[in-house]
Write a structure and sequence with these properties.
Length: about 375
């Protein structure tokens, strides 16, 4: 007889796969795509009205991943998924990729640039999306484009102290988060292609995180000076529990796909500190931002840290935590009947008045995918 926990996790798997297959992808395929251009919409209101404003490259990249992963999970017809991803990726290269390899921030629906800023966050997701498109569609030019973007970063965006500069609103910043997604993209490429560039770059970011991003308290800072010393306010720095979970998961992915000898001891520290410092009093919700002295800066809870907790928990063999985190995501954020989701639960218990963002599916699908793959393997 199956244990109660096994029955619980099996039901969660069945419910989430059914939701994705019957509600989410039918809706986002039908009204979440511009059929002529191949571009994905930015968001849908809860009345199923698409947002008509600028189309960010990051959203296109995340949706290329989502439709590719949905194909792998057999949530979409293979032929249709491949056609959708290919059309979207071709549009991405046509409208966003620049001759020097950089990727601009956003365009309008006609393809005209709205913002030509080349933030590191967007470059990271461009590389990430191209790895999934390459795996699904086997187009050599997708790899060529990715190598071009990586070359741009190495030649024009390197920080002498290591890593890369972030550029937002014409300001040069130094942040760990875009490096985390660049790390993710290098691991994704390493999983599907043997080119040494991917593992070399992944190793550099792995070392930068261990040496500079993670502080002696075992907490990972978000914002830095050019020499990678944390930005302090009242002798404390800011960290995000959600990113602790995300880095924890990525360290395990790095060991699996890039360097089998890599230590993942720090992943345990990041996970444990997120559990200790980053949860609501009832232990169910992940808070958004915490100060390094333990005080909570933001008691709001966005949906995505809950998703990252799921991924980290299954990777750490914490089955009960993964179950609880997925139940919280479903109960508090997913609109099961609509195939949509809420973004932010505020401290007062109300929700932020924002539509269902297309970019959110990347987090949700990745969490469910990892739960489906690894939760059944965890002993009780």
């Amino acid at each position: 007889m199956k244990s109660m926990e096994e029955s619980r996790s099996a039901k969660l798997i069945q419910a989430n796969l059914r939701w994705l297959k019957e509600k989410v992808f039918p809706k986002w395929t039908a009204i979440g795509l511009h059929k002529e251009s191949g571009l994905f919409v930015e968001s849908l209101t809860f009345e199923d009205v698409p947002f008509q404003g600028p189309h960010r490259a990051m959203v296109q990249a995340r949706q290329i991943y989502s439709f590719s992963e949905a194909c792998r999970m057999e949530l979409l017809d293979t032929t249709r998924a491949r056609e959708t991803v290919k059309k979207a990726t071709d549009a991405f290269l046509k409208y966003y990729l620049q001759p020097n390899g950089s990727v601009i921030h956003s365009i309008d629906l006609s393809g005209k640039p709205v913002s030509q800023e080349v933030d590191l966050y967007t470059q990271a997701f461009a590389l990430f999306a191209l790895s999934y498109a390459y795996q699904l569609c086997a187009e050599p030019r997708y790899k060529e484009a990715a190598l071009k973007t990586l070359k741009y970063l190495k030649t024009e965006r390197q920080n002498p102290a290591g890593g890369y500069t972030e550029i937002k609103n014409s300001q040069t910043l130094y942040q760990s988060n875009p490096h985390m997604h660049l790390f993710e993209s290098m691991i994704a490429w390493s999983a599907v292609d043997s080119d040494s560039n991917w593992k070399e770059e992944a190793a550099a970011i792995y070392n930068l995180c261990q040496d500079k991003f993670i502080q002696k308290e075992g907490l990972l800072a978000e914002h830095f000076q050019p020499d990678w010393k944390p930005q302090l306010e009242n002798n404390r720095f800011l960290f995000e529990p959600g990113h602790h979970y995300e880095w924890c998961w990525l360290f395990h992915q790095y060991k699996k796909y890039c360097e089998s000898r890599a230590s993942v001891e720090v992943a345990t520290t990041l996970f444990d500190n997120a559990e200790k410092e980053g949860l609501s009093a009832d232990g169910r919700l992940v808070y958004d931002e915490i100060w390094s002295d333990g005080n909570v800066k933001k008691k709001s809870s966005r949906f995505w840290p809950q998703s990252e907790r799921i991924k980290a928990a299954v990777m750490m063999n914490k089955g009960a935590i993964a179950d609880q985190a997925l139940e919280t995501l479903m109960d508090k954020f997913l609109l099961i009947d609509q195939g949509l989701w809420r973004d932010t639960l505020k401290e007062d218990g109300s929700y932020a008045d924002v539509p269902a963002k297309a970019s959110s599916l990347y987090h949700i699908l990745n969490a469910i995918s990892e739960y489906v793959k690894y939760r059944p393997r965890i002993g009780e």
